[in-house]
User: What shape does this take?
Amino acid sequence: MQPTPKTEQELLMRANALAGMTLGELAQIANIAVPPDLRRDKGWVGQLLEWHLGASAGSKPVPDFTELGIELKTIPVGYHGKPLETTFVCVAPLIGLHGLCWENSHIRHKLARVLWVPVEGERDIPLADRHVGSPLLWSPSPEEEQQLRQDWEELMDMIVLGQVEQITARHGEVLQLRPKAANSKAQTEAYGANGQPIKTLPRGFYLKTQFTAGLLEKYFIL
DNA sequence: GAGTGATCATAC
DNA sequence: GTATGATCACTC
Assistant: This one.
């Protein structure tokens, strides 16, 4: 593991130095084996970048760069720089929502400051040959935060009203709610239609590709 | 082909 | 089960 960057500038310089390199090169430096594909190693790319940038949090529920309050997210992009996948942000709280508002929600804090690192994700590029792109240190603009907040409030309203199971990934313009579990048999507690507790699949918030594509386009001066 | 719902690994 | 890291893969 590389030393933890002490300033935002140091982190950014470190991330910039990785741009243009391949995952194979980075894995060799870190002395990590490159898996044949990501089918059984979905978090591999993210963890490789965490190693190189000196992320300190490990598996703890705090930002990757705790001291800087910055979250690291890798994002798979295609040949045109467009995101190939939605981006998982955090699990959605399904109970104990009394008094919860956007300002003190987990997701807002997660997205307050994010270092996005695009990585080639086309499946026909061998993992070791995929290139890392230029990093983007981002905070939501007032417009972006408003979009996120609006979707969040709609989804949370449904959860409070016991309509979790009626929510699909089609709800929300930029933020969606989808299963986040080991498999479809996982259970967690939530509110039922009459306020009684029910068991349901754990859900997570995901940023839609349209939204992340907008970020990369808007803030990336290529 | 895109998008939604399902899934994988690992630590605690 | 929950937290971390996400992509897979089936259906439309």
Chain A has a mean pLDDT of 95.
